[in-house]
Structure formats: structure tokens, C-alpha cells
Fold these 2 entries.
Entry 1:
Amino acid sequence: MDSFSLGGVEVTRVVEFETPTRPPAVMFTEIGPQVWHDNRSWLAPDHWDHDTGLLMTRMQTFVLRSGGATILVDTGVGNDKSRPSIPAFDRRGTDFLARLAAVNVLPEDVDLVVNTHLHADHVGWNTRLVDGNWVPTFPYARYLMPRADYDFWRPDSARSARSTRPARTAAANANVFDDSVAPVVRAGQAVLWEDSYDIDGALRLEYAPGHTPGSSVLTLRSGGELAVFVGDVLHHPVQIIEPDANSCFCEDPTAARASRRRVLDRAADQGALVFPAHLRGGSGARVRRNGSSYTIQSWAPFRERV
Ligand SMILES: [Zn+2]
């Protein structure tokens, strides 16, 4: 099993799939070619395929076992979903549930699902298609969703930020609310939380807005160990050395930079392991300060190399 323990919490990673994505200049418009060139030795090939010129990304779910509960952090892209503007996400048919079963997690075993935010690649396995209907994949789970994201993407929302500022990622997130969020709410399994939410004595969710209005981070604190699951506050390891650079999917650039710096400051000061949602290679890393920036100190101690 591809896992390790932090204090009393077991952390297991389950990879849904990996794919090339966009050219660096498209994904990170604020980062010039020199940065990529200068850091090629560690960015390629795991995080950047220099031959094709495309960034590499991974869809993965972190399974946490804490206090007897089984908790999933983000649920990837999902199967059978219509994602017309993102071919790599469109109508997939991956063996993710078999991969979960391989680490001894059946759908009915899941107690809690954490969606760090409500983008297409974080809520996909919230639901699956059964007899033409989208139903919650995890029948007994509560799903923790940030209310600010729910309000932002809800089509009928009067208070939606979309009323004053269109979502940058509207096309990329087409259909997502209807097929991956609303069915969970209708089933009575969604918990819409605001600002912060304590899951148990070891796990706490907090807003870190910017990438989306409700983007959140999950802090794990147990037995003197510390980790933070940051969703897309960090999209790619290049943002550790270029923390002010946003991805093209960040809704509020100023807030996204501030949240990223705050998360990295705290992680560096406290020696926390940082787990972005899409990191390949070691999936997570400890960071340390490097002038006004940061650098990777060590990778997470997963046993297997994916
Ligand atoms: Zn993402």
C-alpha cells in the first residue's frame, strides 16, 4: 500500500490518472521561459515533459484514516462526465474505484469526502452514473464542500460572485455543478461549511481563497507531525519557487497569491508536509524559505514511486 503515517493518521495516495496538460506559458503566464530553463533539472521529466513542451499533471485522491474514519481528500475527474472544453477530462473510464479497493476502501467504507474546491477535477468521483442518473459514489459519506464555492457555481445563485465577475473557468467547469455537486446535495449528503471546519482533533479545514472563492486547505496535526493538503492553492511545484505566479485557473489573482504565500509561510515555519492536489513524483514536499521565495527541502515519504 502506498501510504505512511503522520502521528495517528495514515495517509494513502490513490492515483486516478496522469496526463500532459498545457504549455508552461499558457498555464503560468507570469513565469518566463528562463525560469523553466533554469529549473529543468528537477522539473523534468516528472512535472514538465521537455520533449513535448507540456506540463505534466496527476489526478490523485488522498485517503486519510483518522480516529477510525475513512476520509477522501478530493475526488478527481470521475467517469462518464461530459467535459466539452477539456478533452483529457471528457467521458473518462478509469479504474479509480478498483484502485481504491486495492487500498481496502470500498465506496460504502467512506465516512467523509473533502472537496477542497468545486472545480471539475476535484469533485468528479463525488458521483457516478447509474441507470442514467448521477448518484453519490459513496453512499454513507458526508461530503464537505466550501459554501463560497457552492454559491459561486450554483446556477441560480443571487449572491454569486458571478453576478459581478464572470468565472474565468466557466467553460472548464461546465456541467460540473449539475453532475457532481447537485446530486450530492439532493441526496442530503452535502455539508456546506464556511471559514473553517474541524473534522476531528487532528484535521481542520480552512478557507484559503483566490483559486476559487471557497478554495480551502486541510491541516493534519497529530503526534507532533504536521501536513497540509492544499488543493490547487499550489497547482505545480514551480509555484514553490515562484509563489506569486498564478495558474490560468485562479479566479482572483490577488487573493490567490496571498493565500499561496500564507500557506507556504506557515508550512516553512512549522515544517509541514505540503500536498498539492496534482503533484507528480513524491506527491508532497517539505519546503523551506529561500530569500523571498521557497524551495523544496524533501519529498513526502511514500514508499512507492508512481
Ligand atoms: Zn485541480
Entry 2:
Amino acid sequence: MIATAPYGPYWRQMRKFATIELLSNHRLNLLKHGRESEVKTSLQRLYQLWNKKKCSNGDKVLVEMKRWFRDVTLNNLVHEFFELAGKFVVADALPFLRWLDIGGEEKRMKKVYKELDQLVEGWLREHREKIAENEANSEEDFMGVMLSKLRDVEEHDANTINKATSLNLVLAAEDTTSITMTWALALLLNNRDALDKVQQELDIHVGKDKLLISESDTKNLVYLQSIIKETLRLYPPAPLSVTHEAIKNCTVDGYDVSAGTWLIFNLHKIHRDPHIWTDPSEFRPERFMTTHKDFDVRGNNFELIPFGSGRRMCPGISFALQVLQLTLANVLHWFEFKTPSGEAVDMREAPGLTSPKATPLEVYISPRLPAFVYNSNT
Ligand code: HEM
């Protein structure tokens, strides 16, 4: 997989390939309608759920949003993978305990791996069948493009490379994005002023008579963009980034580092460093419109690196930001959110390689726009 491959020709080729064929601005633009229609379908389902259940409890309906954000992306299998992968990092640090397989995690990991493999195997089979039926359709998505590019590679290797790369992209994208959306909504529920302010921004730039917000509309939503940065600062979904390993002896900032040394970044700590951030644990999106206006999350400001920095930096930044902006803008535009009895949201994090919210995010939803706007569009 790209994320675990050592630096070398294979990593370079696969990363270049993923960047050009899936994550480039050109490709992202081509796939824009797919993203917009996925978000629309998920919101329509949420609205229909509200419509069906509303009578039993006034016009409010209780929904678990952590699961909803996960469903917008993919499924729980991916989440289980990261939870277990986090435990494996611990097992690697204490290898003498590993053979005991305390808690049966190694066994569970093998089972999850097998299920994930079967999932991508199924996608690959579908693609091959499609190509056999109709060559013209074969390049409509990443796996299809990969199949055609790997045409000259021996079939078993081509299948392995295709499955590993496609699965890596799904794994890297799925959990991180849905976790960030859950934290963003949880933070807004605990900071109602910010929630009001972002909804006002939506009213000004989109208007209450329009239902669907497109990706091009999100460019004007600067407060929403600041909310996303502040969420990624406080709750980086990969709090320890991805482990780096020195491939040869080197010197970093005056320290001698020998080959094989692991470097683990504590992004969570960097992002809350009181020497850098005023009121580091407070949710203050405004900082990205004032004191930290020029800060981005693209690895240029080492104080804020939720996607890492440098050569191994996340190649999915633009994709992730687009999905986050599009989904959050729409969900906040369509619905009002309230916690049951107005209590604060529990902000505890679950352990793992990624850091999801430990408990469900149960909220009451009700439509925010006039009824005719939904009725003419759903
Ligand atoms: C909020 C969303 C996301 C966050 C916070 C995030 C964060 C990260 C981080 C911290 C790394 C490790 C960087 C390093 O080693 O220095 C990484 C690597 C990676 N990410 Fe993301 N990511 C996100 C979404 C995505 C998406 C949407 C994709 C692709 C569709 C993606 C694909 C990858 C890949 C392939 C790597 C491995 C890169 C390499 O080793 O060369 N990520 N990501």
C-alpha cells in the first residue's frame, strides 16, 4: 500500500498514479457530480426519515449522526480496521507480548483483513466483467483506470497492486473524513454561537429558498472553512499521523538518527501547544479569520499539520476538504440540530490509529428551510 510502502520506485509510481488519476484537481472536477449526488441522496434519506417519524415527537426526530456521517462515506469495517491497527502499534512496541494475542486482536485483525480483501476482490471482479462486456465504460473510476494502466503487468501482480492501492485510498479517506465531520458537528453543538454564525453565513451566501449547496457555492463560506480548520486542529483524525522510519543514518536538527528509527508525530500535542495557540483547548474558528488568517492545512505551517507535511504528506487534502465543506455545508443548511434536553456533547475520544468520538452523537433534527424548498427538490 502507498501509505506503508518504503520510499522507492514502487511508492513513487503508485503515489504519482493516485495523485494524477484520482486526486488531481482535474480528476476531482470530473468526479464532482458523483460527490454532490451522494450527499444529496444521503440528505434526502435523512429528510425522509424525519418526515416519517416527526408526528410521534413534535417536529423533532432523534438521529445518531456519527453513524450517518459514516454511512455517507463507507462502512464500519474500515473503522474496525483502524481501531485494531492502533492496537497493533502497541503490540509492535511490546513484541514479546504479541505471541500471546491478548484479547484475540490478531485473530480479529486477520478476519477484518479477509473481509476487506473480499470487498475489493468483488469490486475488481465487477470491473473485469464490465470490461468484458463494454470496453468503453472501463475507465469511469479509479479501479477501472488502474486496470487499463496495469494491462501489461502479469495478472496476479496487477490484481494485487490494484486491490492494495484502491483499498489504501478507501481506508485513508473513509475514517478520517467521517471522524472530522462528527467532531465538527459535536463542537458546533457545544458552541451554539458558532453554529448560529455558520448558519447565518449560509443564509447570506446560499439563501433559504435554495436547497442544495454545490461545491462551487462552498468557496464563499469562509466561516465554515475556519470551522473545519479549527476542528482539524483540536481533533486531528490521525493524531499520531503515520509512523515514519529512517531508511539510513541521518542528522535531524542536530540529533543523530540511526537507520530503522521510528518517528511518531504527536499532532494532537503540536496543535494544542500553548506557546503557539492562545486558549489552545478552546474552539475559536475566528482565529483563522484574524490572528491565523494566513494559516493553511497543507503542510506549510508546521504548527497545524493534520495532513502531515513534506514528501509523505497526505495526497488527499483537496479531496478531503471538498468532501468536508460540501457535506457540512449541506447538513447545516438543511437541518436544525439540538442535543436531547440541551446537554453538552460528550467529547471523549476512542483509542486507535484514528481518533473517533467515543460515544454516539445523538441529536434532534428538524428542517431549517421552508417546507416548499424540500418538497420541490426531494
Ligand atoms: C480529513 C481527512 C484526512 C486527514 C486528516 C488525513 C491525514 C493524513 C496524514 C496525517 C497522513 C500521513 C502524512 C505523513 O506521513 O506525514 C496521510 C497519508 C495519506 N493519506 Fe490522508 N488524510 C485525510 C484524507 C485522505 C483522503 C480523502 C485520501 C484519499 C482519497 C487520503 C489518502 C492518503 C494516502 C494515500 C496517504 C499516504 C501517503 C504516503 O505515504 O505517501 N487521505 N493522511
